[in-house]
Amino acid sequence: MMGRSRRLALLAEGRFTPLDAKTAVGVLRFRPDQVAAVVDATREGRTAESCVGAGGEIPVVADLDAAAERGADSLMIGVAPQGGGLPEDWRRMVRDAITRGWDVLSGLHVFLSDDPELAALAARHGARLIDARRPPTTREVAARRAAGLEALVVLTVGTDCNVGKMTTALALARGLEARGVSVAFVPTGQTGIFIADHGVAIDAVPSDFAAGAIERLVLEAASRADVVVVEGQGS
């Protein structure tokens, strides 16, 4: 979903905490090389590590001008607010990013690319609006095709959101890889999709087709790995 090597400004205005900024924290933990700065004027001058325990010395800055000075070339919305909408004060920063020609990456339930104003602005400035939660165009019903796989399939589960299912899955996958095991990670939420550059946000898929969407991902992963680690979802 990153699509290319980037220098991200992670938008977490007023909410750059371990619980609120789930997407930002995940990207800082697993793709820090892609991050130039975190945008949160209320924590300006601090480091990512001091705020959320990940990201090392990546700076927290007040605005996109400061992020640009540190090499940012794209904006990622690093918080998933309740309801998944775009707060009005963030909309101003999204417009600012687009006018700079920056791509904007979003995991919100509201798709930026469907917003007429933002889409027109992006077309004018050559920017892309990337919505990680947009579901697949094809809908499939699960057919137990994964039942006979030789690959070991591991699913991380939990009883709520933001309790560590994705983090555990990625840590397990990386640990197995370090031991020489052929492993593939299957992301099922927006943060995992940004980290792995593929996947399906399962909460955006109608329930009749959710199992089919994940079955396809598991089959694809098993074709190239001996162990498939699937990010579970719970809410």
Write the layout of secondary structure elements.
Elements: E1 8-11, H1 22-30, E2 35-39, H2 48-52, E3 60-61, H3 64-69, E4 74-77, H4 88-99, E5 103-106, H5 116-125, E6 129-131, E7 152-155, H6 165-178, E8 183-186, H7 190-196, H8 207-222, E9 227-230
Parallel strand pairs: 1-2, 1-4, 2-3, 4-5, 5-6, 7-9, 8-9
Helix pairs in contact: 1-7, 4-5
Keywords:
six-stranded parallel beta sheet; single chain; DUF1611 domain-containing protein; Rossmann fold; globular; three-stranded parallel beta sheet; 8 helices; 235 residues; P-loop_NTPase
What's a quick, concise take on this entry?
This protein is α/β, with parallel strands linked by helices. The protein is built from eight helices and nine strands. The strands form two sheets. Strands 3-2-1-4-5-6 form a six-stranded parallel sheet, sandwiched between helices. The chain has a three-stranded parallel sheet with strand order 7-9-8, with helices on both faces.
